[in-house]
Design a protein that fits this description.
Blueprint (H helix, E strand, L loop, with lengths): L2 H4 L7 E3 L4 E3 L7 E7 L2 E5 L2 E6 L4 E2 L1 H6 L6 E4 L3 E7 H10 L1 H21 L1
Helix pairs in contact: 3-4
């Protein structure tokens, strides 16, 4: 699923300069994000688990279970993120089942990758 294309008309983007964190492990998670441009590192226990590129979801776990962040996301280059609050997330899941499947695939991929490292 091409999330950059799906959200291409959105203007409420959050700009994060290179080297700055979008969020940190332990922060409250009120939003999930779509990385619309740039690259960002997803860090767990001081280890880069993934370098996200445009179209990548980040912060999905905290919005699903209303818990704190399990990872830190740091902009590797200047980035633009689209914030998605809980109500919008629920709407997307209801109106676009393929979006829900995409989120599940992202979660599964990250869990399997983490399992191979631990």
């Amino acid at each position: 699923m091409n999330l950059v294309e799906l959200f291409r008309h959105q203007i409420d983007l959050q700009e994060i300069p290179a080297g700055q964190a979008l969020f940190r492990k332990g922060d409250k998670g009120n939003f999930m994000y779509v990385l619309m441009s740039g690259t960002a590192d997803i860090i767990v226990h001081d280890r880069v688990m993934e370098t996200a590129e445009a179209g990548t979801l980040v912060g999905e776990m905290a919005i699903i279970d209303d818990n704190t962040r399990s990872a830190t996301v740091v902009a590797k280059t200047d980035c633009k993120f689209l914030p998605i609050e809980h109500e919008r997330f629920i709407f997307l899941v209801q109106q676009k089942p393929e979006f829900a499947l995409h989120v599940m695939k992202v979660l599964t991929h990250r869990l399997r990758k983490t399992d191979t490292i631990v």
